[in-house]
Design a protein that fits this description.
Length: 97
Amino acid sequence: EGEGEENEITLHDTRCKLYQAMVKQDGGPEWSDRGVGVVRLKKDRDSEKKRLLFRQDGTSRVQMNFYIYPTLQATVDQKIVSFTGLDSGKPCAYRMR
């Protein structure tokens, strides 16, 4: 647990490796390795809003952090979970393994 999580409850957490979809200089897609760490499903004690938070091992640097939105859908394929989250307010594809 880290800074900004004081008023939140952890509903679920698990270790994983996180990948984020990025656009290469030539315009093509690629998966950027965001590191190994713990992803947590957090719930605010007052507003009851839920968010997904991923902190990288070692540095505790936040690599993913967004509130759960009503139409969020995840797909599970063997050991990979894929979903669209938000990065700086813009839709972004993520994968966790």
